[in-house]
Design a protein that fits this description.
mainly beta
């Protein structure tokens, strides 16, 4: 056992020390020694209960109170006094704001040290019935009351990199080599059984439906197949090809649940490749309910083009999404490990050591859907401009309304949320107007509106806080949805949109937005690295610093908002977006344990 660097006992035996030539032994007595327990805090909930009250345990724990009974045995009277001097010196300078001590313990037959972070300690003379006789034997007993942080920690720090939300699972549902289980229809509409039934075929390992004949030039065509999506693979991956597709529909797929409810689903991620000859290959990902019974892949193709078709190559179910098309936004998982919440330094750096520009770091509980809006865009379906400086590789003009519809099951939070948008203004200023509505069927049961002024002109993208909203704003049931729209309502020039978010406002979520500079990354200027440090005695509110080339070059950025991030042992979801480059995220921390450190 070691207290503040001084060894008190080793393998259950006293430890010999010397001070100015005077020798003594130190031992920790079993009777009266203990490591204490984290203090449990309770809070009373406000209710209208007429009798009693509803109490719950606060997730925060109070400090623990270990105590040590220490016996000092001097070889001489001078040794006895030297032991007291030595023991007093271990208490440290607790008046210094940056002092931090530690009580370290290696349990018998184990190789892993358990460490308690000491906030205060002192020594008391213990005088039992035998104290006067002990003096004759050059023995004195002291009691050391200690206050320490609630949870123990490992002796060594750990760097935990952000990783996919779970071990990646990729299961093939259909290889596209047989029409078994597939059906097809022309003129699909709201009615899943509407339109005209047609027969799909297999061409070169793909399920295909070709153009039909009729009075109209363009018609929607769909391929349907029964599917099952277990909860460990909540994303559906669809590989498709189109030849001479005129437009993309507002919704890429439809799904029908086991209860018969039919949802339209936009892709949450997609990559398109022009393979030549008028053929476009698209790989799309959709987050779908676990209880779907079938999926319909739809497209709009030109009847006037000979041979126009829609093909599905493969259907797969996967456990997590790929990064955004530019890699600048990722939703991953940080798993600190241990058995108690961790604190540490959340680190973000450019994968290519180039500028980060503005950085978003948002942590939230595991299991929640993503807070992003672009994944749920339903209109418009055309008009985007390719832009490699954006999160999604394209930007949308807000000259016309851009609308997003989030199904009830996909809501990131139910309660207060901060609505943000990443936008860019080409002129001196423009007004962005937004609405949020709760929708049941085709009925809007609640609507909220707001507007903000976006300043420019600038080629730089901005994070704009649109307002606080109560999501969904009304009871909408499992078949309801939330509709959010944005449009430029005043100003000249163009107001561009890239991405939007609904960040939860609760004690389990935290948001940091930091401006790391827009120029080339260099020491003392724009940063390629960002550190968000947990609150401590030295920095009670935590700290946010940026830099380039390591912490020796860190500085405090002038523009940021910051909340305290929490890291439960079982893990937390972390959304990281960097406007300037692909980010890498990790947590530099001690593993925390309720009582005993493990490996």
């Amino acid at each position: 056992m070691i207290l503040n660097g001084g060894e008190l006992i080793r393998d259950g035996e006293p430890v010999r020390h010397e001070v100015d030539g005077a020798a003594f032994k130190v031992a920790v007595l079993r009777e009266g020694t203990g490591f204490g327990n984290p203090e449990t805090l309770t809070k009373t909930m406000n209710t209208l209960m007429t009798q009693g009250s509803w109490e719950t345990t606060d997730p925060k724990r109070g400090n623990r109170a270990p105590a040590l009974m220490i016996e000092v045995e001097g070889e001489t009277a001078d040794g006895l006094n030297a032991g007291e001097v030595w023991l007093s010196a271990l208490m440290g300078d607790f008046n210094a704001a940056d002092w931090a001590g530690a009580l370290e313990w290696l349990p018998p037959r184990q190789s892993v040290w358990t460490v308690f972070d000491v906030t205060s300690c002192y020594i008391e003379r213990s005088q039992d019935k035998r104290w006067d006789l002990d003096e004759h034997r050059f023995v004195r007993t002291y009691r050391v009351p200690i206050r320490a942080l609630p949870h123990a920690r490992s002796r060594d720090k750990t760097i935990t990199p952000a990783q996919p939300s779970s071990a990646f699972v990729d299961v093939q549902i259909d290889s596209g080599t047989s029409t078994s289980g597939w059906s097809a229809r022309w003129n699909l509409g709201i009615d899943p059984n509407g339109g005209t039934a047609i027969t799909p075929t297999v061409v070169s390992g793909h399920i295909r439906v070709t153009r039909s004949t009729g009075p109209s030039s363009y018609e929607s065509v769909g391929l349907r197949r029964n599917v099952t999506i277990p909860t460990d693979t909540p994303y559906l991956r669809v590989d498709r090809r189109t030849y001479q597709a005129a437009t993309s529909p507002a919704h890429d797929i439809y799904v029908t649940t086991s209860t018969g409810a039919r949802y339209s689903m936009p892709a949450v991620a997609a990559t398109k490749t022009d393979v030549g000859g008028g053929i476009t290959q698209t790989i799309s990902y959709y987050r779908v309910p676990a209880d779907i019974s079938n999926v319909e892949v739809v497209a709009t193709i030109d009847r006037n083009v000979t041979g126009a078709y829609l093909e599905v190559d493969q259907l797969r179910r996967v456990s997590s999404l790929p990064p955004s098309s530019t890699g600048r936004q990722k939703v991953q998982t940080l798993i600190p490990g241990g058995s108690a919440p961790a604190e540490g330094s959340l680190q973000v750096e450019s994968a290519a050591a180039t500028k980060l520009d503005r950085v978003i770091v948002y942590t939230y509980p595991l299991g929640r859907p993503m807070p992003t809006l672009a994944a749920y865009r339903v209109s418009p379906t055309t008009g985007q401009i390719a832009d490699t400086d954006t999160i999604h590789g394209q930007r949308w003009p807000l000259a016309n309304i851009v609308a997003f519809e989030i199904p009830a099951w996909a809501l990131h939070v139910q309660g207060m949320a901060a609505l943000y948008a990443k936008v860019r203004c080409d002129t001196a200023s423009a007004t962005l107007s937004w609405t949020m509505s709760a929708v049941v069927g085709d009925t809007y049961v609640a609507s909220k509106t707001g507007r903000v002024t976006v300043t420019g002109p600038s080629s730089r993208w901005q994070m704009v806080a649109l307002g606080l909203v109560d999501v969904p704003g009304a009871r909408i049931g499992t078949n309801g949805r939330v509709r959010i729209t944005m449009v430029k309502s005043a100003g000249s020039g163009t107001l561009w949109f890239d991405e939007g978010w609904t960040f939860g406002v609760d004690e389990n979520s935290a948001l940091s937005i930091v401006d790391c500079g827009e120029g080339a990354a260099s020491v003392g200027a724009s940063a390629s690295q960002l550190w968000i440090d947990a609150p401590s005695a030295v920095a009670p509110a935590g700290s946010v610093t940026a830099g380039h080339g390591g912490r020796a070059n860190e500085y405090a950025p002038s523009d940021y908002v910051h909340q305290v991030h929490r890291f439960p042992a079982e893990g937390v979801s972390v959304l990281t977006a960097a406007f300037g480059s692909e980010p890498k995220t990790g947590l530099d921390h001690f593993r925390r344990w309720t009582h005993h450190a493990g490996s």
